[in-house]
Prior knowledge:
It catalyses: phosphoenolpyruvate + UDP-N-acetyl-alpha-D-glucosamine = UDP-N-acetyl-3-O-(1-carboxyvinyl)-alpha-D-glucosamine + phosphate. 32% of the residues lie in helices and 26% in strands. The chain is α/β, with parallel strands linked by helices. The chain folds into two domains: 2-19 and 234-420, Enolpyruvate transferase domain (UDP-n-acetylglucosamine1-carboxyvinyl-transferase, Chain); 22-231, UDP-n-acetylglucosamine1-carboxyvinyl-transferase, Chain, CATH 3.65.10.10. The strands form six sheets. The chain has a four-stranded mixed β-sheet, covered by helices on one side. The chain has a four-stranded mixed β-sheet with strand order 2-15-17-16, with helices on one face. It is elongated, with a radius of gyration of 21 Å.
Amino acid sequence: MASFFIEGGTRLAGEVDISGAKNSALPIIAASLLTDKKVVLQNIPDVVDVRTMIQLVRHLGASIEFKGRKLSIQASCLNSVEAPYDIVCRMRASYYVLGALVAREKKAVVAMPGGCAIGPRPIDLHIKGLSSLGTKVDISGGYINADARGLVGRKVDLQGPKGTSVGATINVMLAATGASGRTEISPAAVEPEVVDVANFLRALGVEVSGQGSHTITVKACDRFEERIRYRIIPDRIETGTFAVAAAITRGKISMHECMSEHMTSVFEKLDQVGIGVSQTGQSVTISGSRQKRATDIFVAPYPGFPTDMQAQFMALLSIVPGTSTIKESIFENRFMQAVELMRMGADITIEGDTAVIKGVKKLSGTHLMASDLRASSALILAGLAARGRTVVRRIYHLDRGYENFETKLRKLGARIRRVRE
């Protein structure tokens, strides 16, 4: 098992290229199963979750070549409709093959994804959406068994107790490409990754409209384009993470190949804290400051403040003078990094779904244990700003979603190394 050893106290400075969005790449790789034509995807990040999805679509029968950031997929014929538990259990996003298999093969057997460290993430809206299209769903033996021989486009209601669902919206979009007639999804998720999947479907030749709004329509597609090339959008969470890296170390980082229009809520909060944000085209420069101010954050679906950024901001706010709060409205168990930050000297109190953070002058390096992907990055950021050495264990969580993270940090001046123990 590997750990990061970090010597804190260095101001980060320089330039970094942002990788492709993991949360777009995963469903788009699954969506490539819709066609028997060759699909070439560009700007694919080389992270563990992408490797897991590649393994899964290979298992289903696709031929794949992954070189650099280019992924070529040809699913001329599929030899299986089963997504086995030994692959699905490693990554919840494996469930995206459900919609693709239902559309193409009219049947699917997909292992239930199981639990998650950050709280319950049920798939009831996925099943509700597919059932609305006429799919017969049976859950037994830990598997979702879907029979979609009667797939028909209809109006699909994806309203859940906490709003709509990104995953369910995408799965229904994929399934709708194989349903006769027209499907209307409402309320649909509006996240940039949903828009990216919709734009990929359009590149395939599917009639999709309304992406980016709460009503998406999809018409069945019986003929796909012959040549499909598509470029994945930049990763907005990686962009935000490096922005916080500049802020927490009082450094200056220019990020290239990013889409600032996806970062409005994050950049607004950095501005409120007193961090300089300047944008030029697809580049953004973040300038740290000694004079920081407390702020309050309410986590909400896009275009609100993203849940995937609250851990990183908690690390930053722990050394910002005054009292800040973070209210997490999406996942009920996503403050797991707080206990580890407190071990570094942070003053954090958890009150239900709200974290109250009283800024301290300095964090102290110590041994930490990562619990999930975004908590991992938060602890590393805290270690970069802390006095002395920080050791972050269980960094396999981080490798799921950040490409060459420590290499990029080292180029910015960070004293960080990976140690296998």
